[in-house]
Amino acid sequence: MDISYNESEEGTIYLVLSEPRSIRKKNIEIIKEITDKGFTTIVITTNDPYNVLRKDYVKGGINLEKVHFIDAITKYAIGKESEGAVNCTFVNNPSNLTDMGIAVTELLKTIDGDNVWVLLDSVNSMLIYISSANLTKFFHFITSKLKILEISGVFLAVEKGIEPSILAQLEGFVDGVVESEG
After folding, report:
1. Is residue 45 part of a domain?
2. In total, how many domains does the chain have?
3. Which InterPro entries does the record cross-reference, listed alphabetically (predicted)?
4. Domain range for 142
5. Could you give phi then psi for residue 97, rounded to 5 degrees?
6. Is 128 part of a structural domain of the chain?
7. Within a 10 A sphere around the Cβ of 32, how many other Cβ atoms?
8. How is 25-88 classified by DSSP, letter by letter?
9. Is this model's pTM higher than 0.90 or not?
10. Does some domain include residue 3?
11. Is the residue at 129 inside a domain?
12. Measured on CA atoms in the order 138, 160, 151, 89, is the torsion positive or negative?
């Protein structure tokens, strides 16, 4: 996918639109690309649980020392955190945007250096749990925070899986939209 990055583009935020069948593959490709460039990544997941992503990332050859997770699905699905989780903060459920925002803020405070990206997977799964109005408010909050801190971000979404009016609002918060091919 090649997310172009150079020092003058710190704080660049992308909305990546993917085919439904390839969104997990796209997640892995993006994380691999970012970590291979030496960046640390915070993955906010409302789509796949920590354990699933961790296994996928290992299979994808990703250096997990460079990946921190904010998992909003595991506690919701099974009622408890995954045992032995490494570099993972668990949020009670995907609709708890306050806890998600706090988790991002706290994690950003603990990561050394400027080389951080935030990936949110996925916009569509968030819409299952929250209203479109709350989603756009959360997106505005997160994108504003990242831009102020000059931290880059990627927000994954299923192409054609979001109402055009919501998509237009989300596109207004990001610096670029990438439509993935397959």
Report:
1. yes
2. 1
3. DUF7504, P-loop_NTPase
4. 11-179
5. -70, -30
6. yes
7. 17
8. HHHHHHHHHHHHTT-EEEEEESSS-HHHHHHHHHHTT--GGGEEEEESSHHHHHSSPPTT-SSE
9. yes
10. no
11. yes
12. positive
